[in-house]
Specification:
about 20% helix, about 120 residues, VC0802-like, 2 helices, alpha+beta
Length: about 120
């Protein structure tokens, strides 16, 4: 399975409203629940005003469109990272999954996943 590196630095934010989000950003993820409105976006597009914000994330995605019947894809990745004390933040879309790790662990995470049988692509 291929993992594609994503060139952006990411921030994870809690925002007050959708008006705080730069909808012109090439890539961003929004989640709204009864308790919060969250945003994951390139750091250079993060809102100036947030309720909470954590910078310093890097990301990669699982290449291709994943069928909903596939089982254990995130589990295998998270197990490899957890066994090496690397935390992750996962975001799923209709097509695939995106995995974010702290920037200081990014290269090590990709190296471990490569040793675990994943192909890392630019």
């Amino acid at each position: 399975m291929e993992l594609k590196k994503i060139a952006y630095d990411f921030s994870v934010c809690k925002v007050a409203s959708l008006a705080d989000i730069n909808m012109d950003s090439e890539m961003f993820f929004i989640a709204k629940t009864d308790e919060e409105l969250s945003l994951v976006c390139p750091t250079n597009h993060a809102p100036l005003q947030t309720l909470a914000r954590e910078d310093g994330w890097k990301a990669f995605r699982i290449q291709g469109e994943l069928d909903f019947s596939l089982i254990g894809i995130l589990s295998k990745i998270s197990t490899i990272l957890a066994e090496n004390r690397i935390g992750l933040f996962a975001v799923s879309t209709y097509n695939t999954d995106y995995i974010l790790v702290k920037a200081e662990n990014y290269n090590r995470a990709l190296d471990l996943l490569s040793k675990g049988g994943y192909v890392i692509v630019q």
